[in-house]
Structures
1.
Amino acid sequence: MNWLSQIASITRFGLMSIPQRLGAVAATVIGIAGVVAVFVGVLSMAAGFRQAMTVSSSPDAAIVLRSGAENEMVSGFSREQTQIIADSAGVARNAQGPLSSAELFVIINLPKRSTGTDANVPLRGVEAAALRVRDNFKISRGRMFDWGKDEVVVGAGAAREFAGLDIGSSIKVGRYEWPVVGIFTADGAICESEIWTDAKVLQAAYHRGDSFQSVRARLTTPEAFQKFKDALTSNPQLTVTASRQSEYYAQQSEAMTRLITSLGFSIAFLMAIGAVFGALNTMYSTVAARTREIATLRALGFGGGAVVVSLMIESLLLALLGGVAGASLAYFAFNGYHTSTMNFQSFSQVAFAFRVTPRLLLQGMGWATAIGLIGGLLPAVRAARLPIVAALREL
Amino acid sequence: MKYFHLIWSNLKRKKLRTLLTVLSVLVAFVLFGFLSSIKQALTGGVQMAGMDRLVVRHKVSIMQLLPQSYKERMERIPGVVLASHNTWFGGIYQDPKNFFMQSPVVPEAFLEMSPEFLLPPEQKKAWLQSRTGAIVGRKTADRFHWKIGDKVPIQSSIWSQANGSRAWEFDIVGIFDGKEKGTDTTPLFFRYDYFDEARVNGKGMVGWYSIRVKDPARAAETAKLVDKEFENSDAETKTEPEGAFVQEWANQIGNIELMVVAILGAVFFTILLVAGNTMSQAVRERTGELGVLKAIGFTNAQVVALVLVESCLLSVLGGLLGLGLAWLLISRGDPTGGMLPLFFFPWRDLLIGVGLSLALGVATGIFPSLQALRLRVADALRRM
């Protein structure tokens, strides 16, 4: 009998005996499922947040802030400066002029639907080109606000997370009441967490004169970015920093993503240690229960290596079963779950949905595999080392 | 107690199995400690909030400034004892990752408002005499090795001075401690008069106010009066108890309580299964012995107690070791480097942890002990 068929038959015996120790096996499988579910669940939060921050920022979209400003809140431009930026080399143009939008960014309080307490919701004043600077900006319900009028449109994420943003209701900003006239989407991009109005309207309400905080521009090509950046930095009338929007938001989301990811990894790691102990226990007792059988097989000429490998296979199969169960649980429980959190870089809320990505599922299976291998190895080695004569005599 | 030896020998019977079970329980309680501390760090401010303090902010958003002149108008409102203000400075010391809060304040009003900060009297005197003086909490002082007399440069992301520079320099004249363990001793406070004179923009405007009310029971009433005072002005206010304000801030991050409970639920469920499974294995193996015990006169209650005490011993042992380890790790401080200034293991949660470990022991022991209870002596002896 060759080695492979030895492994196959020992594994088959092992699997067939599972019904006799169903309790122990189920405990191991569910334990591993727990680890994988928690790991995938926590990390899907980070993945969703990151996705909301960075999705659909095409490489030809740029953002310009005052030099030294880490975010829009602390940046500032005069109208003249924004026009110089709009007319710089590299900015795409259409019949109406350059595809560049000078914008204002403020924060208003609105109650979160989930908790009922106030949250910082971003309110953005935009120029007409803003719709072209974002990808796939669409009014999904209602209509666009009229330029120059005291009206707002609300991003789909904001409308979902915060109370009082339905079409027909109005938001109160100081002494002004601005009716919500439409809901917009933009491929799930971060602007879906925002409320938009005409920049001029916002300037008046906030006594901002004719000033802005950021300029967003669509470039002729992604490669034009360097040209654009050089044009701005070499212009003595400006002290600004230009970044690709994708890089800007990736950097803004970094701290939060890192926090959640490290949290997820540490929790999963600790849980995995617990699960390894569980798996070890189960496999040790499996070996103990099969002492007679294994000793008999060894006496018949089965190799020690075959015993080790087949026990490892059994442990691995159980672990993978647990992994699949945990990953599916996480997928069905968390994927697409909508929530919002604070982006500490801009002190404002970002609406996002948990994302269970294929990559996370694979990583989860990786954890399960590792637990199965570690949990199976020591018991398998013990089984192979059983002194045959003593084990047979024990019966 | 006289059966302790018996229980102990049972645990020693399979040392490896006992060890593995204790370790898995230990891991669960280390996690429990960490998650409790994270929850404490994110929501603990609510418990520390002063009962007699209200926070007044701009109605539209806390990012909008309020006039400094509101102080006197607030203090004239019946029920208000004192008002003091803070302003977000957004300062960076050396590296944006070194996050801590800084705020310009009026020293006298601020110190009177915040009895939770303990500042030695001579340092207070020094602060009142030095315009560029600043006081800093113990944690931040230790973190950056600042001593009294040091000059510290801080780059503001918001406020620039007349010469266009955003670099501000402060003289450390005092280091304050917290009155309680949960007091946040990471902020730095400097003088508002120095700040207001030197800044270019927003002169005369401040971030938010704290007010102290005479009678905490009538805080809601006073809050309404404050908001009414500034109604229909350019800067309308929203006034709420400090606790509600802090809670709101924590809620902005998300429902932390729910997340912590969900994760811990998954962890304990997993561990319960693993440990429970081991326990019932241990009892099953000993069916015969339990039969003997019953045959020689042990009552049902005694046998059940033996099994339950064994499982509780396992779980409490793992639990205490885990909580102790968590305590050691957590007392090394905030793992995020400034994001969680109130990171510590609260006593309340430590006690809950001990209770939980006992509950875990009962939960894992209950089924095996029922097995032992139902065991009929004759059946058990036959199986030997």
2.
Amino acid sequence: MFQIIKNEWRFLVRSRIFLGISIAFISIMLLSVFLGNYQTQKQAQTHQNAKDHVRQQWVSIDEMNPHSAAHYGTFIFKPSNLLSNLDEGVNSVTGNVLRVEGHVQNEIVHSEASQMQAVSRFGKLKPSLLLQYIVPLLLVFLAFNSVSNEKQSGRLKLLVLQGAKPLQIILAKTLSVWLYGMLLLSLILFVYGLLNLQSLTADILARTGLFFLSYSLYYFIISGLTVFFSARWQNATLALTSMLGIWIIWTIFLPNILMSSVEKWHELPSRNEFQTAMKEDRSKGLDGHNPTDKRSLALKEKVLKEYGVDSVSQLPINFDGMRMQADEDYGNSVWDKHFGNNRSVLQKQKQSFQLGGIVNPFISLQNTSMGFMASDNLHHQEFLLQVENYRRVFIKMLNDKQTYGGSKTGDWGWKIDNAFFKSVPDFDYQPTQISAVISKYILDVILLFLWTILVVALIVFGTKKIKIV
Amino acid sequence: MIQIQNVSKSFKSELAVQNLNLEVNKGEILGLLGANGAGKSTTINMLLGFLQPDSGNVSINSIDTSKNAQDTRKLIGYIPENVNLYPYLSGLENLDYFCKLAGLNYSKTELEDYLTSCGLASDAHLKKVSGYSKGMRQKVGIAIAYAKKAKVYLLDEPASGLDPLASNELSLLLQKLASEGATIIMASHDIFRVREVCNRIGILKKGILVKELNSKDVSANELETLYLKFMQN
């Protein structure tokens, strides 16, 4: 088998057309890695500058009422992810700036896609675009006549007469085409690793390893299927047509059809519905800015009783701050309910979409590619959750200061000094570790393995019927 | 060495070979003459073990080709009408590759000796096969079988398309192989070449062996007359 693989590679190395295409393609791939890396670094720098600027503004507040500061708020910038250099997933459309303030949970805005001059169907020139769409096409073009050419030229007879078994020939041809895909994949990861040598962590290496595994399996599926068709069909054109048909169905039609179906089965509320429902639920709770609100009055009675006083002016604390926090707590529970519902729907959508991998391994590849590169919706939701948790700590600190900082109820002119603002912690994003989310992608990896086994079975059992003459 | 006993083979309802009986001994060259569709290639493919006879037995060195094809193939060298080698490899590299597939590791000198023995000029050994003539490719094809130490050579229309010089070289080479003990079956349309090279000649018509004769017993003209007579009737 090694001799056949070696011979196939001799052909690849000696073919000027192939070498030309390979050099051109590798140049584009390397360009995509360099550009992606440059963009990621530039974005990281821009975000850091913006983050520093916003933080500087915050810690420079001389004196301010805590509740005014809660409305003044701050901004959080979604940190650029080193891994998204390989697959930016949903990052370009989800937005990357979030305003954090009291009473409201704002939506993340300023997506890259919204600011692009031209939005391509396939997204930006990222390694994932080439690895998911173009490399499989190259493998198909390399493999479609690998066996049929041997048959038509009569060499297959000679090979078999020399002792090579048809199964060996087909497996060797599959492996030699697959190795070409692996070479391109390894080259991209190697250059990416070299460019980011100092930033590599165990988590990044583990994620990259899993990314490599997913693509390896997918390339084997594509190479094996193409060589199998090349062996089974009587002519190469039929094998090429079959595989191009499969490529189109797998990469263009099925993902769209399945996603649309999944969105119908597990429907998310529209933005308008979501906001209306939030507003409605919110209106049933306590209004922090309205002291005559029924629930505010009930809270006041409860607090007065606790402190054993008759009026808020006798309280040793500022009841306004307490009311604001109660408003905040209620708002948080409303948000938890609606956002939780959305998360649950998104989770169901993801699980159903993952099952699409049963009929389409490309779906499993896309899921793992984005997932392992931390650029899928799951990681984005995790970021939003961290921001919301920070917002709650941030606002509670301000409300607590208003309540227990020494001011009296109704004293809206009371201010705190700069030392307090400096003591409010900045948002510190904790990247999601792969160990915490790997279980979410196990199904995709299993499906890719099952497809690989299916292709091997096709080759092993299907080649028994191959006609040598 | 080669025995074909009461062999019949049909494709769908079309009879390709009918009750064929042939025996070729060691050192003997049998020529199979016949028009297209006479059953020459079917007979060769049954000897190669790529086709199974519907009835009868095909054996090489007393080994049944339909039951032990892997074993009989080790004894066979096959030279088709067009020896399609790998065009991006040189003659030497092609020979080396096919030998390695058969588990034979020869040194460069040994490979060159095989090519030279089969009539390929030494200055062509390292040239890419894409630049070879048909005759040169035939020589590499024979060298592959020769290096494999084949006991049986099966040639399917080997002289077709060769220029007279190359065709003559092929004849001499086959005679040399037979003198070394090889058993050869050569299917061909070329009456004169078959008469010149082969010890015995079989004429096939619609899958039936209509005549078998010693080449020494007929002149080229007589063979042609006989062949045409069988083909026309």
3.
Amino acid sequence: MSINEDKIREWVEYFREAREIRRRYANWDFIKSQPPKIRIALEYYIETGDFRTAAKITGMGVDEFLDMAKDLAGIPTTD
Amino acid sequence: MVNAITDTSFLIDWIRYSKSKLIFKIFSIIYIPENVLNEIRSERTLIWISEGLEEGSLAIFPELPDISREALELVARSRRVPIRPVDYPEAFCLVVGRRLNFIVLTENGGAIALKSYDPEYSGVEVLRGIDVIYRLWRLNYLNSFKDELELYQRETKHIYSRKDLVRYSDYLK
Amino acid sequence: MSETSDVSSRLKEWVEYFREAREIRRRYANWDFIKSQPPKIRIALEYYIETGDLFNAAKIAGMSMEEFNELRIKAGIPSIG
């Protein structure tokens, strides 16, 4: 499969902006106050948007994790 | 009306929206893959799903070996590209979308990106929450696209980026 | 014309049949047991009571149909028809 490099560059920029949004809205006081497992999962999620792996780290269901991320940690879904 | 298939990322956001049931005005049936259902644990989402199943507007899409195989290949292929890959549930939905002409409902950037760079999946129609809201507005189920999008983002805590909004800039003035 | 009214009255009978089946499931269900279950199981049992749909109820619960059938027996919910 040959990939259009310009398209890839656009998407790299898109995901970078998504990460910025997550970082900007995050409630860092809440995140830093969490036990290591939760804190690491939330930080991982902010950086990557990968909610499945983040949920696995915490042992939560993906919807439970995203509810916590949104409602308590202030992290919106974006991509 | 057409059929759609939804992945976890779309479902988890959409059911937070106070007018979530309006989506059934656009689709005959919305399918939820078994692998997506298996990921859901929250009461709110499960109640929404069971009500939809009861009303006949939702149905569960089983794990089919053929589709599963292609979805796994897609997962592997997406990892060769230096951007967000797709996970199995999203890949499954894309394969169903391609094979059965279902509209794919997703908020997963990896799935949307894949559609744009993989010619095999370029024909799959993919809708995000913002696209569904736009369609509902065009069909006169909603009064103002701009106001409704703001409400949607507020209620679901899903923020659309500049690139997402640019497509609808004429309607967001 | 008479074929249409025949189908219509048969459909009405089936609607009544399913409504009555739901009433029976509701009446016999052990609601204390059901309410004590974790959300996924509770919602699956409630869905089963409302619809009699074992296939999808099992999927909601994340169980095989056989496992869910054992559960609905434990929950006192009869299978009708």
